[in-house]
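input
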Amino acid sequence: MSTEHPSACGPILDRFRALFTPRSIAVVGASTQGTSAGNRFIRSLKASGYAGKIYAIHPKAEEIDGIRAFRKIADIPNTVDYAYLTVPAEKVGTILADTGGKLRFAQVMATNEDGSGAAWEAEILALARETDMRLVGPNCMGTHSPRGGYTFMETASLREGRIGIGCQSGGLGMDILLRGQNLGLSYSGLVTLGNAIDVQPAELFEYYLEDPDTDVIGFYVEDVKDGRRFLDLARRNRGRKPLVLMVGGLSKSGQKAAASHTGGMGGSRQAWEAFARQTGAILTPSLDAFLDALQLCLWLRPKPEAEQPTVTLLGNGGGTSVLATDALDAAGLALAELEQAARDAYAAIEMPPGASLENPMDLPASVLKEEEGRLIAKLLEVDRTLTSPYATLVHLNLPVLMAYRHVKDLLPNLVQSILGRAQQEDTAPHTLLVLRSDRSEEADGWRRRMRAVALEHRIPTFDEVPQAITALQSYRQYERYLATRRMSAESAGQVGAPAH
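output
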């Protein structure tokens, strides 16, 4: 017998329309005291300007937070697209049994911790199937849908983006939203899947692959029940939409933790590494690496395998450059060698003493301040036209540069000069910007402002150089997969592989 939900058929975009663009939302679990998670969700809906109808479900109240309340979903006169359930586990079954066939998606936050979790999950799944309802969760935090005008996180931005996320951890889902938006990332959707007893990662993956509003896909998974389907989808994708993965439960201890968290077993490290090789997926070991890879996939254009993975390093901080050189070597990347034409062009640029124009280029703040911060544009133009590295990594030690406050608009001019022609052409080097801070309020403020400007130019930014190099190494693996596919297609006389 098929384990797939009977409504999990038909065009995939139609299946998820009620979740991502709900015309009506029911909130189950809001209290008359106004202090529950359900009340917070109602406030979030109002604050975000959600345009659909909002209903509250409560056994006694006539109204909650200014929203009309009903005893059960079946009493609502219209079909409800999405219900947000924050009630305890023992009440979920009653709520789902009393929908009267009027609910399309139910997202269940609760989890059963009394030892009967499997039986409880089987019970609520059966109730969902009886009424052709889809169930998200349980053991999750909610859904974030800018196009639908709603989010489960009150402080999350609803700016529409191009990244689709599936996450089997509510807490990590919150981190991806909030830390991601601090990096300038925004999302087409983010669904916390929890134990994924009905809506599973593979089905959500299929949706994002077909969704015209999604360009990059990211998943945190602990348990992919339909692993074969997930693999087949990734193979058919052929790298068209970059896939970034963070997998929990790769070690024995991690598997034990995953089993207690979602009941899942993520699979072996070797299996997921093989998955990445076969599909071009980027496998990341941490939240920071996951977000960094999303940045590069969103903003960089893949380069062909024929290009040598050489890098130009420049910035203020000789020791930082030395450590970065070691990190490049460990990542399988190399410093770009300067041809004589480049050396001559650098020598022709007037600048004060103190700069080392070899690669890595050590440019003290006393040099970077020249021309009110615009001198670096000349150096980058030489790098782009006469060295043409695979990537150019610029690192700025902001507290040191801030000592030159008397130089008018130094930091704004610096960042504009760095970003002026970066990544405007397919032949331009990948440009990555590292903004180093001492974590003081002033330095962090400048980092946020400069990061915002970089975002407008589609330039990934990082806090430290090794972080940027690790992300570049991961992205290079994706590029190599695309190049291998392209060469295979060309040798077979086929059209070249699709590229992001």
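quick obs: The chain has 19 helices and 19 strands.
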